[in-house]
Amino acid sequence: MPEQSRIVQLSNRIATNTAKFDAYLGENSIPTPSFSAKYDQPSPLPTTAPPEILAARKAILQDTLELRQLMLGPREHVLELANPNALLSQLVIARLGLASLVPLDDGASTTTFSAIASTTGLSERNIRRLIRHAISQRVFVEGPSPGQVSHSAASRLLAREPDMWPDSHEPEHTGFALAHDTEKPIFEYLASEPERAARFAAGMRLYANRPGTDVRVDVGGSHGQLGIQLAWAFPGLKHVVVQDIQEAVIEAASANMPEDLAGRLSYMVHDFFTEQPGKSAAVYVFRACFHNWSDKYAVKMLEALKPALEAGVSHVVINDVVVPDAETLKRLDQEGKADAAHVRSADLAMGYLMNAGDRELGDWKALFEMAGPGFEFLTQGEEYKLEGSDLGMVVAKWVGVGGSWNDGTISHKD
Questions:
Q1: Cα 56 to Cα 67: distance, rounded to the nearest angstrom
Q2: HSE toward the beta carbon, residue 403, CA cutoff 13 A
Q3: Residues with catalytic roles
Q4: What is the pTM of this model?
Q5: Which residues span the domain enclosing 152?
Q6: Distance (Å, rounded) from C-alpha 321 to C-alpha 112?
Q7: 240, CA 20 to 30 Å: which among 162, 292, 313, 319?
């Protein structure tokens, strides 16, 4: 009989020790561990428990950790070790005393993100981001309706045991800036620190190769791979323009342009906060750009487009993170189709690195509304989903006055 694999050995040992642990609890009328606020034990075992039961618990903790790390694989294991987000939301919750703002009972009473925000002075969006990240770690509970917050066992414990830039949209007002004693946004700071910039770039390459992104790993980036793929995939496109703010990047991309796309693909230096020079294009594509910027600056990006748009012709296509609503994400997480903790961690990271964040579909729609009249937001329901990709897609049409269909030019921003 072949020897059992390590993961089967671990799962069997976990099952054996868990049964031993559970039997001891039952025999001694000790409550079974729970995330519910009704569970008021700071530890599942008394310190007077027999050594073999304490050892069983220790083995369960060690074996479940090893099994998790094996199931992650080397890449995701390393990424998880380097992820500071699990601690970040807890530090903020502790510093602001957020747990004390939730009714202290057995979890039956609730408050709301809005009420907590009004008490703390933080925006409702930031409070929602922090608490939902904590919820993914089973600290607090959302419900019974979206936006309502009650205690879990962990947050109740926090409540019982004995700020700066509250609603800024500026990219330099970040936890990263505080930690590094700088007044610069992260990319400006990295530009003056070549070694750190190289490490950051290497980390992003590793991140891009994680499961769920391999379908799009070579599509996009400032050297115009998305534009190249679009031109190849759609021969009817007469012209694709790739834009980037860095002249050196554009020069390098132009020098390496595929020969078969000569005449159909061009490169242009452009700052997307300034007026768009490519007029009346059929489609303006932004890939992984908006999530780097707060609403204030994301709106500026859309406003800079407006003078170039042609009514009834021009569309804005945004290929970026679209976060499912809270109930959908919870369901997908339970079904093993999404990792809620990862989604909330990524949103949190965008906050402390860039004072930005990931957006739900409603947030994307609101962004176009903030940019003023003229946009018709087309994406509905779950149309934003792209199979095999962590990025979604939202589309808006320019419905301003005048214009007629053009020859099929695409302008592409990386």
A1: 16
A2: 19
A3: 291
A4: 0.64
A5: 85-160
A6: 25
A7: 292
